[in-house]
Design brief:
Elements (H helix, E strand, L loop, with lengths): L3 E8 L5 H12 L16 H6 L6 E8 L5 E8 L7 H9 L3 E7 L6 H12 L3 E7 L8 H10 L9 E2 L8 H11 L12 E10 L3 E10 L1 E3 L3 E4 L5 E3 L2 E5 L3 E4 L1 E3 L3 E5 L13 E4 L18 E7 L5 H14 L4 E7 L3 E8 L2 H14 L4 E3 L3 E2 L1 E5 L4 E4 L11 E16 L3 H10 L3 E9 L2 E9 H15 L5 E11 L2 E8 L2 E2 L5 E4 H18 L7 E7 L2 E8 L15 H21 L6 H8 L5
Parallel strand pairs: 1-3, 1-4, 4-5, 5-6
Antiparallel strand pairs: 2-3, 7-8, 7-16, 8-15, 9-14, 10-11, 10-16, 12-13, 12-15, 17-19, 17-20, 17-21, 18-19, 22-23, 22-24, 24-26, 24-27, 25-26, 28-29, 28-30, 28-31, 31-32
Helix pairs in contact: 11-13
């Protein structure tokens, strides 16, 4: 165990985490130059294109240090986005130390701080690394100041590197060996292993990624998941080089994989403890919690015939993504579909894109919503994430919505614009700190429903890309909520219904009406598009009809002839309106989802 080091790289988005992982892999020689490609640990196309890590990866790096001893360095690569914070926390619980990566040009950002606090909670050794020192805009001295003043770390412990150019990689590997402590644990004790990830293999079932804290596990052992209460026989154990490498056993301090014939990823919960059925550990490893979806939206196929294909695709997708949940749903406007739960907006975006790409589906999403809490007059507490399940307004005693605490880091000059945006989004209880000259840290409590709509895009716009944003769910707070219905030609379109704050209802209703007016084609009769709360109409637009000039054939003569023709036309249009069906094109639903600023 003295020759093992378990570490992770944590950073804000786009500070060069995946590039540094590439250089460490190249330096230790586990992949030759011919097989190497950038972002080698990101094996999904969408990860490469967007430059983000969605699934955590593990790789064991063999390294001969300057003292001549051989070490195994287990790199547990973590996702960088706020949606996946729980997975990051479980990965960090599997390590003894972290490399805290800071961009030399951008300095300390919101998630740099959030990830630092996560690492401190797990009492890990922290090595600050200043990356991108080759950039013309790099300001290393300022970042060293920030390490001292904002992060509270010893600035003399920092390392400088350029992951892109390969500068300073050997010093980082030496620091990992010298400064990160070896794992501790008793190989003879009962097995206690922490699950920090799982992937689905078409031929072998679920491959469980775990860190062994005590004891040992080998093929043939009967293991038990403590929280899941299920037992399995181990088929294979091993380590991760870029591919899986089979081993005889995994013992205390090791990071590796277990294959035990687990059918789906949903059967494996991140943060669960694995122990032996015959000799269980005294208590499970701490920190386990159920991952709950935060944002909800319905997915419908554009063509009704694709419903079975969508159902099959969601089944397959669920095999790989345990945090994604769904159930059957239907809409009068869009037909049969599924109500899905996501960890956040990025997760929703990724799921939608992967379904369209990997399964060749054309799908449409309903308006995203959050889970609201309603207390009824009879004392019942209801959680509602779908506007179609909104309770009868007369029976509601109290309505509450989830709030987040947003942490924003930004240059001081954008402070006014960001504060105005937060006030627009019903932000309260602000706190303002100045961690260093010219930089501000802004804290706001805001309703999650306001943030999922268009906050992130507008925040990036008003700060010209220099601001960074991070959030934590805090609690439910009482709010004046209402159900906004959209009516087209007097018919309610349930897929466009939204639960909104009453103050915002008119603005949201007007926006939806205007968008639909642009998208719905004109008919021979007048079409009214209305926003309503209960029986009260709060917004309206009208699509004017095509008009045929029926009196063109009248040359002079008595006015009564013209009146007769116009009256006949009016009656025809009234009859047409009563029996006419307004078909809403798919583009209209997409238009309503877009924010005002686009």
């Amino acid at each position: 165990m003295d020759h093992i080091r378990n570490f992770s790289i944590i950073a804000h988005i786009d500070h060069g985490k995946s590039t540094l992982a590439d250089r460490l892999i190249q330096f230790t020689g586990i992949v030759n130059d011919r097989d190497f490609q950038n972002q080698i640990l990101d094996n999904m196309d969408i990860e490469r294109e967007r430059g983000i890590t969605i699934k955590s990866q593990v790789v064991s790096l063999p390294y001969r240090a300057k003292d001549g001893r051989r070490y195994t360095l287990n790199l547990i690569d973590t996702p960088g986005h706020v949606d996946f914070t729980y997975e990051v926390s479980r990965s960090l619980a599997s390590c003894e130390g972290v490399l805290l990566l800071i961009d030399a040009a951008q300095g300390v950002q919101a998630q740099t701080l959030a990830n630092l606090y996560l690492a401190m909670e797990h009492d890990l050794a922290i090595i600050p690394v200043i990356n991108k020192i080759d950039l013309p805009s790099a300001d290393v001295e300022r970042v060293i100041e920030q390490i001292d003043s904002e992060l509270g770390l010893d600035p003399d412990t920092h390392l400088k590197c350029s992951a892109k150019e390969g500068i300073g990689i050997e010093q980082i590997l030496e620091a990992i060996v010298e400064r990160i402590p070896p794992p501790i644990g008793d190989p003879e004790a009962p097995l206690a292993a922490l699950i920090f990830d799982a992937k689905y293999d078409t031929f072998r079932g679920t491959v469980i990624h775990c860190r062994i804290f005590d004891g040992a596990v080998k093929a043939g052992d009967i293991i038990r998941f403590v929280y899941n209460h299920s037992t399995y026989r181990v088929e294979e154990v091993g380590h991760f080089l870029l591919q899986r490498q089979k081993r005889d056993k995994l013992s205390a301090g090791d990071v590796g994989y277990i294959i035990a014939g687990v059918k789906t990823v949903s059967d494996v919960r991140t943060g669960d403890t694995i122990t032996l059925e015959s000799r269980p550990c005294a208590k499970p490893l701490p920190g386990f919690k159920e991952v709950k979806p935060v944002v909800f939206a319905s997915i419908y196929p554009i063509a009704a015939d694709d419903y079975t294909d969508l159902a099959d695709s969601l089944d397959k997708f669920k095999l790989n993504d345990a945090s994604f949940v769904y159930e059957k749903d239907s809409s009068a406007a869009l037909g049969q579909g599924f109500r899905c739960g996501f960890l956040g907006l990025l997760h929703l975006d990724i799921v939608q894109e992967r379904l369209e790409r990997e399964y060749d589906l054309s799908i449409i999403l309903s308006v995203p919503s959050v889970r609201y809490r309603f207390t009824l007059k009879d004392g019942t507490v209801l959680f509602v994430d779908n506007p179609t399940r909104y309770p009868d307004p007369i029976s509601i005693l109290k309505s509450e919505e989830p709030y987040i605490r947003a942490t924003m880091m930004l240059p001081e000059r954008y402070l006014g614009a960001v504060m105005k945006l937060c006030m627009e989004k019903r932000g309260v209880n602000s706190a303002l700190n100045y961690p260093s000259p010219g930089r501000a840290e802004l804290l706001y409590d805001m309703p999650l429903a306001e943030v999922i709509f268009d906050f992130y895009d507008r925040f990036k716009s008003v700060t010209q890309g220099y601001g960074s944003f991070d959030y934590d769910l805090i609690d439910y707070r009482e709010s004046n909520l209402a159900l906004l219905d959209i009516l087209v030609n007097g018919e309610k379109v349930d897929a466009l219904s939204q639960i909104v704050h009453r103050e915002r209802a008119r603005a949201r209703g007007l926006q939806a009406c205007e968008r639909l007016k642009e998208e719905i084609p004109r008919q021979m009769f007048k079409i009214a598009i209305q926003g309503a709360i209960g029986g009260e109409i709060i917004s309206r637009t009208t699509i004017s009809p095509f008009r045929k000039d029926v009196i063109a054939k009248c040359y002079g003569g008595d006015i009564s002839r013209k009146r007769k023709l116009l009256e006949k036309q009016r009656k025809g249009k009234r009859r047409m309106k009563m029996i006419g069906d307004v078909s809403i094109p798919q583009s209209a639903f997409l238009a309503v989802l877009k924010s005002d600023t686009e």
